[in-house]
Amino acid sequence: MQRPAGVTAIAALFFLVAVYLWTIAAIRLVSPDAISLRSGAPFMYGLELAGPYMALLIGTLYLAIAWGLLRLHNWARWAAMLVIVIAVAALVPRISTAELGIPVFWYGLQIALRVAVAWYLAQAPAVIDAFAGKTPS
Question: Is the CB of residue 73 less than 8 Å from the CB of residue 60?
């Protein structure tokens, strides 16, 4: 079964997030004061304060989702959609308290892109066929 290009791109983004979180964790383990734990906040949703081991764990989860998407495992598609829903929920307070102008636009754009990716994973016929093991028509 051919993997849709969009799924490959989403898997690559999940992989890049995993590498980013692992890098933060490695730097924190080697030199605890060199980088802030808040560096991983956009991808850890409140768990960044638990320390570098949590960054390693969450990075590993992102890698597992990326690997699952590349292998067209349906659990990975659902896990990616769950992570995206959590990401959108984490952005709601930010856009609600943002000043009008660029901040509202920025958070709104992030929400719109994440919803589009989740919608693509949930509804695109090529994605559903790929994860179901069918050949695209």
Answer: no
In 46-130, where do the E strands start and end? none
Reduced to 3 states (helix: H, G, I; strand: E, B; else coil), residue 98 is coil
Cα separation, 40 vs 92, in Å, equals: 18
Model confidence over 40-77: pLDDT tens digits?
888 888 787 788 899 999 999 999 999 999 999 999 99
Asked if residues 59 and 21 have their Cβ atoms less than 8 Å apart, the reply is: yes
Q: CB within 8 A of 66, min separation 6: which ones?
A: 11, 12, 14, 15, 18, 76
**Nearest of 114, 95, 91 to residue 105 by alpha carbon:** 95
User: Of 65, 92, 90, 81, whose CA–CA distance to 115 is shortest?
Assistant: 81
